[in-house]
Amino acid sequence: MASLGKNLAALLLFLNASSLLHYNLLIHAASTSRPVTLPRILIMTDLGSDDDYKDDYFDNHSSPPEVLSSVNIPQLHQEPKLCQHNPCLENQEPCAKLLKQTGCLCPGISGADEPPHSPRIQALLPITKGDNRGMVEVQWCAPSSVVTGYRVVFEGSHGNALEFGGARRRGLVGSLESGTKVCVEAVNSAGHSTRSESACKRYDPPESSDHNLFAWVIGGGVALLLIIIITSVILWKHKVCQKGKEDSTDGLGNPSYSTEGTL
């Protein structure tokens, strides 16, 4: 019995010590751990009407928000344009130089290793004034090719041609007969162009003012002569008629004259 009592006393001491240790552990954990915050729940008992909501909105916003209109931003990218280069004018900047300066587009040009295309002849104009009076000016347009010079040839000239520089677009030739065929050839190191239809033209001189004046003089003289002849005929007939009337008046005044014959 004495041993049983001792065992019970020891068990009670052990239980008390365990409870005390467990309590200390709980106190330490509570002091070191972060406090837990519970979410606060608000219960709205009166939400109000829609009119109250609108009034509150307009009180807080004096004016409606402004809507910014879209702004059109111009595009900086522009399409390249053709170079301002006229193939029919002299003393112009080469198109390749204009391309480097402005970035414009040049027409396609064939290289120097092939014969040039045919130029286009523009006009054959006679010179009527100055020291070159009587000569003919040939005007042409350059082809889309590399050209070092031009030759002007005539029908029936048997190879005799006039040569001009690559920058020229016109040239003077001697007097030409009406109907003479004139052709312009482009030349480079690879050869010369063919005599196409657009590169040739027949000379058709306009009528000069002297010829027109001479024709007017002749026409006026003929017209004046006809007027004189017609006027002379009319006067002659009038005179004849007047003389016939005078003869009739003289016969009626003579007493020996009778319509039935001689008395």
Task: Describe, in plain words, how this protein is organized in 3D.
The protein is α+β, with helices and mostly antiparallel strands. Helix content is 36%, strand content 16%. It is built from four helices and eight strands, in the order H-H-H-E-E-E-E-E-E-E-E-H. Strands 3, 4, 6, 7 and 8 form a five-stranded antiparallel β-sheet that branches. A three-stranded antiparallel β-sheet has the order 1-2-5, with no helix packed on it. The radius of gyration is 61 Å and the shape is elongated. The protein starts with a helix and ends in a 10-residue tail after the last helix. 10% of the residues are buried.
Q: What is the mean predicted local confidence, pLDDT?
A: 76
Strand content: 15-25%
Number of continuous helical runs: 4
Share of helix, binned: 25-40%
Uncertain stretches:
none
Alpha-carbon distance between the two ends: 232 Å
SSE series:
HHHEEEEEEEEH
How many runs of DSSP E, i.e. beta strands?
Answer: 8
Shape: elongated
Architecture blueprint of SSEs:
Blueprint: H1 2-32, H2 50-60, H3 95-102, E1 120-126, E2 136-141, E3 149-154, E4 161-165, E5 170-173, E6 181-188, E7 191-192, E8 200-202, H4 209-253
Antiparallel strand pairs: 1-2, 2-5, 3-4, 3-6, 6-7, 6-8
Name some characteristics of this structure.
elongated, alpha+beta, single chain, 263 residues
Summarize the entry for a quick read.
With about 260 residues, this protein is an alpha+beta fold. About 35% of the residues lie in helices and about 15% in strands.
